[in-house]
Amino acid sequence: MKKIIKYPLTFIVLLAIGMTSCKKEFQKLNKNPNTLEVANDPSLVGNIEVNSFFNSAYNAWTLGNGMSQYATFSQSYYNTLARYIPASNQPYWQVLYTDARDANQVITDSKANGNTAMQAVGLILRSYSFAQLTDLWGDIPFKNALQGQNGNFAASYDGQQTVYTDPALGVLPSLRAADSLLKSSVTAITGDLIYAGDITKWRKFCNALRLRYLLRASSKLSSAAAEMQKIVSDGTIFQSASESAELTLPSSVPYAFPSITERSGDYSIKYLNTLLYNFFVNTGDQQRLTLLFAKNVTNQNATGFNFSYYGGMPIVSDANTAQVNSASGFNSSIFLSSPSSPVLKARVITYQEVEFILAEASLKGLITTGSAATYYVNGITGAYADYGIDAVSTAAYLSNPSVVYNPANALNQIITQKWVGNFDVGFEGWIEYRRTGIPAFDAASANLNGGKISTRFLYPPDEQTINAVNYKAELQVQGGTESTSYKAWWEK
């Protein structure tokens, strides 16, 4: 027989009080006062900046420098993507959408609390993410993207022209709006790791990106020239290399410059590409060659300087001994042990790039302010300043007959110098090659894309599963089959 125990009413009341108290204590203990339950805007801004700038350096070092033909990866285990095999680059796609989502949150919050400066920062950072996405993948989920919090994980694709020009969300209208907000803003930018909240420098960063994308789309946008001229006339643009959009990365993981923590085996298979080596030789560019690269194995004990002590490697499947011995690897004293070196700064857009943009714009009659020759000289000066190369060496380089501005060869000079200056800046060398065809890339050696330089990444596998309906609809736009030869809107 079960024995029933009867407790006094006072005991039951005390037990209930005790349990309620314990529950409250558990609630207090389970809440970490040192962790943000909802990310605030300053923390979002800093996180987006680190993601954007680190990934610009990381993607360049691990893939972009190969696809831009600055470097050759000597072993087939590492170099299939750099040989233009169709690939998705899904990790970067995910980073960019995460950054765009977080920037969108900054925009929403800043509109609500009236902080126009932070709203502008959000617009700039979101625009950069979307521009990277469309320049690297083509048509993308855009107008209906960033709706995951509403349960929408399957957004339709929009064309690149829409991504660039949509009045509400487009890259160019958003950057234009950001500049206008910053121009009249009296609020503060917080959480900023790039310019420490300096509104004028953020305007210059914004206008640098505007000039990049306006030039890129200038053959398709009748309004591009007028807008570029307005930006130049306003004068709020980078004035020196010290204003470039760049970030000094820490010396420790996970955000160290990628060469610093790379395994020796991964580091040692990266060599100076023949195309870049020939540029150094043909223009007498001793300074950048010796700063970035080491003497080859055959001449590693040679004294003094001679271009023959260095060498380039063509795009190869697997380099043979002779190719390895004659080609220059990266300068280990810089890339493995000098985290504070200006060479290892993570860059998104620089003063030198802006000057080369203006040089091309001037040459083509898109702007009337200044001269192409002056902008060209400024670009080279800025490129040398990026690496801390002294003024005397810069002047000597500018006096080289192959470097002196030549009106008959000006476009090739401008774009090639811009290509060199964008070394270690994401995929910019590859993107600009697709726009201009300059310099002439090697499309034959060990190419895995039918002898063609690919023009885009494939869509990530997640798009084919999570967003299958819209992915299949996009394939019909491309002719029924996804192709790495499907060109950008601004390429056509």
From TrEMBL:
<dbReference type="Pfam" id="PF12771">
    <property type="entry name" value="SusD-like_2"/>
</dbReference>
<dbReference type="InterPro" id="IPR011990">
    <property type="entry name" value="TPR-like_helical_dom_sf"/>
</dbReference>
<protein>
    <submittedName>
        <fullName>SusD/RagB family nutrient-binding outer membrane lipoprotein</fullName>
    </submittedName>
</protein>
<dbReference type="InterPro" id="IPR041662">
    <property type="entry name" value="SusD-like_2"/>
</dbReference>
<keyword id="KW-0449">Lipoprotein</keyword>
